[in-house]
Inverse folding.
């Protein structure tokens, strides 16, 4: 499957992402990209539910517009903007 970033002059340079912060395990997860905020917001419940079923302790779920994260899963210690 092709990525949304494979398109020339992609409108997804600042796509929408779901960011989930968990405390157990201490991780930061990014899911996406999404074309718009509504799509990301609709998907966030499913991603949070999947992590919850895996017994992750959810701290925060956010929808944001930003460039593609350099890592889709970041383990502890958290980046400075999460603290």
């Amino acid at each position: 499957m092709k990525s949304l970033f494979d398109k020339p002059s992609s409108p997804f340079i600042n796509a929408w992402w779901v960011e989930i912060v968990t405390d157990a395990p201490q991780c930061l997860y990014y899911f996406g990209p999404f074309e718009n905020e509504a799509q990301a917001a609709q998907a966030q419940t499913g991603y949070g539910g999947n992590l919850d079923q895996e017994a992750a302790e959810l701290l925060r779920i956010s929808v944001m517009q930003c460039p593609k994260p350099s890592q889709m899963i970041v383990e502890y210690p958290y980046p400075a903007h999460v603290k």
Q: What stands out?
A: The chain is about 20% helix and 40% strand.
